[in-house]
Design brief:
The chain is 46% helix and 15% strand. By secondary structure, it is α/β, with parallel strands linked by helices. The chain has 2 domains: 2-164 and 355-368, Glycogen Phosphorylase B (Rossmann fold), CATH 3.40.50; 168-351, Glycogen Phosphorylase B (Rossmann fold), CATH 3.40.50. It has a 7-stranded parallel β-sheet with strand order 3-2-1-4-5-6-7, with helices on both faces. A 6-stranded parallel β-sheet has the order 10-9-8-11-12-13, with helices on both faces. Strand 9, helix 9 and strand 10 (250-253) form a beta-alpha-beta unit. Helix 4 (104-113) packs parallel to helix 5 (129-135).
Length: 370
């Protein structure tokens, strides 16, 4: 089996491709796998760290406003498509899979024009322009949220697979995680995070939120600020009377490299509504307060969050309504109402698709052997 994958621009587009490649490699020791991505972007780093071969092309996205730079975008796209044809002719894949981001456009389009089977994986509830454009000729379109099919036109085959998830997230036990993190078995534990870069509005609210909990000691809490916020947030917290170097009920970190442990241990989660995060929350059945980012293409995080909140699988708090007081009230309500947590947990689990990687593998195997 020779498989070429393309997706990037963000970790949310790249990590599903890596998860798909990993299950292919696990099932087929002789499989030949190649990634194509943008030179110098996050996909180049992540793919190489995962141990897969990588070929770089150069491409950029369109600016939403009128800009002379869009002429360069068109030129780069046409050149990238030509480069992709050369890569495909050299690698001779049996299948090409695109997982979104503008980098997947020329790769999958070139394969479709050359008569090679293709698949699309869309992570978000509201699909991106690239996915919708490529889906018309794709052999299989994989979606991750119920209801996403209405945004696509006529396709050959659509499969609700969910988002491929990290095995450590699925396999870590709550009891083991709590022991490793030093959290009592009967304590209420909140996990919150503001993304790898650090969502400004969430972190601003978290300063007063953490200061309130530091005074009252209502629950155990770990917050990941993200890279940018770590430059200012410790000082802001110190001015409110909380020192991030303290090792008590509350811990504040720039990033959680042991996220699987914290997710397994958590009684509730506060986060943005990125597709991969929601895949993990639903697979584990974690009650969550979702604060979708308003600064993403087509407001897709709002649609992601609505796909859960409309089915009692999460609580939705829009950024325009976000305050430390409102958020604290919502968390205390969850802490004091186990029945509500149970309702949200059951709702999330109903939407969870923890076997996404296996589902996708079985579909592509059948495609190639039909």
């Amino acid at each position: 089996m020779r498989v070429l994958l393309a997706g990037g621009g963000t970790a949310g587009h790249c990590n599903p491709a890596i998860a798909i490649a990993s299950v292919i490699r696990e099932k087929n020791k002789d499989a030949q796998i190649l990634f194509v991505g943008n030179r110098g972007k996050i996909e180049e780093t992540l793919v190489q760290k995962a141990g897969f071969d990588f070929k770089a092309i150069r491409i950029q996205g369109f600016r939403r406003s009128l800009s002379p730079d869009n002429l360069k975008t068109v030129w780069l796209y046409l050149k990238a498509k030509s480069d992709c044809r050369k890569i495909i002719k050299e690698f001779q894949p049996d299948l090409v899979i695109g997982t979104g981001g503008y980098v997947s456009g020329p790769v999958v389009a070139a394969a479709q024009n050359m008569g090679i089977p293709t698949c699309i994986h869309e992570q978000n509830a509201y699909p991106g322009v690239t996915s919708k454009m490529l889906a018309r000729k794709a052999d299989i379109v994989f979606i991750s949220f119920p209801g996403s099919e209405k945004y696509f036109g006529k396709v050959k085959k659509m499969v609700l697979s969910g988002n491929p998830l990290r095995t450590e997230v699925l396999n870590t036990k709550r009891e083991d995680a709590r022991k490793q993190l030093g959290i009592p078995a009967d304590a209420f534990y909140l996990l919150s995070f503001a993304g790898s870069l650090g969502a400004q509005k969430i972190n601003e609210a978290m300063v007063d939120f953490i200061a309130e909990n530091a005074k009252k000691g209502d629950f155990y809490h770990t917050h990941a600020t993200g890279e940018r916020a770590w430059a200012w947030m410790p000082k802001a917290l110190l001015e409110k009377g909380y020192n991030v170097e303290e090792e008590g009920r509350i811990k504040v970190r720039p990033y959680l490299y042991d996220m699987a442990l914290h997710l397994a241990a958590a009684d509730a989660v506060i986060s943005r509504a990125g597709a991969i995060t929601l895949g993990e929350i639903t697979a584990l059945g974690k009650p969550a307060v979702l604060i979708p980012s308003p600064n993403v293409t087509h407001n897709h995080q709002y649609y992601n969050a609505r796909s859960l909140s409309d089915r009692e699988g999460a609580l939705l708090l829009e950024e325009t309504d976000l305050s430390a007081g409102k958020l604290y009230e919502m968390i205390l309500d969850l802490k004091e109402d186990p029945a509500k947590r149970e309702t949200l947990s059951r709702g999330a689990l109903k939407l969870g698709l923890p076997q996404a990687s296996e589902e996708i593998y079985q579909e592509i195997y059948a495609l190639l052997h039909s």
